[in-house]
Amino acid sequence: MAAFDPSGISATGGALSAMRAAMSRANEAIERIGSGLRINRSADDPAGLAISERLRSEVRGLNRAAMNAMDEVSMLQTADSALGEINASLQNVHELSVYSGNPILTAEDQQALKQQVDANLQHIDSVVQNAEFNGRQLLSGELGSNMSTGALGMEGYNVTGGGSIAQVSDAIGRVSEFRSTLGARQNELISNINSLEITAENTLAAESRIRDADIAEEATKLTATQLQLQASMAALAQANVNSKAVLSLLQSETRF
Predict the structure, then answer these.
(1) 81 and 182 in contact (C-beta within 8 Å)?
(2) 37: which strand partners?
(3) Residues with Cβ < 8 Å from 29, sequence gap 6 or more?
(4) Rounded to an integer, what distance in angstroms lies between the CA atom of residue 118 and that of residue 236?
């Protein structure tokens, strides 16, 4: 009777172990390719996950800060648009004030000029009252300056008497100075927004390098593990054939 050879059992066990390892690697590669992430759970890379989460938090904070600045820019643009209307009305008043000095004008003409000036001054106060952003009155002092006719020294201005062109020019200068201040603030905010967006983009790229999967690399790993699986299956199949041959031989010898 032939001696029993345990090499078939050993080969089978080795092939099974190799198959399990290859299947584990294949499943990991498939999961990473499917999710696009190298870290799908904390066990994948505990330290890397902690760094990734911290970077994600930084990115969200940077994006929120940029959005806050954008909102402020929108508010300032609203105020600047309203100031543009006030400036246009004051320019009209300035022109009408100069025109009122024309010696050919009649009393009726002067009265018509006064009505036009009064209408422009009323429009200025209406613009100030309606210049809002999220409930904030933009031109009533909240942004640093009050642009009402009273604050500009134009309340009760009479183009036909008592009013002066210098008075109108001073009001125009105050509006222009305020617009200049708001414009400088807008430029500062836009610069900050650009800086925040660049920082957020770079931080997100760093987080991506830690957390995201390299699809090409994972695809290569998947191909390699598939080949290993095929080799392990072939070895297992050969081991089974050898075991069956030994068993058949043993049965034959037993009959004799």
Answers:
(1) no
(2) 212
(3) 218, 219, 221, 222, 225
(4) 101
pTM: 0.72
Q: How confident is the model at residue 191 (pLDDT cuts 50, 70, 90)?
A: very high
The C-alpha atoms of residue 121 and residue 249 are separated, in whole angstroms, by: 116
Residues 220, 256: Cα–Cα separation, whole Å: 55
Strand partners of residue 146: 140
Of 92, 96, 120, residue with least CA distance to 110: 96
Q: Which fold has domain 77-212?
A: f41 fragment of flagellin, N-terminal domain (1.20.1330)
Could you give the CA distance from residue 195 to residue 159 in angstroms, rounded to a whole number? 50
The 3-state DSSP class for residue 130 equals helix
Q: What pLDDT is stored for residue 2 in this prediction?
A: 42
- Per-residue tokens: 91: 């320019």
Query: In the predicted model, is pLDDT for residue 65 greater than 90?
Result: yes
Among 153, 172, 167, 164, smallest CA distance to 101 is for 164
Roughly what angle, to the nearest 10 degrees, separates helices 46-99 and 107-130? 170
Tokens at 254, concatenated: 């037993």
pLDDT band at 239, cuts 50/70/90? low
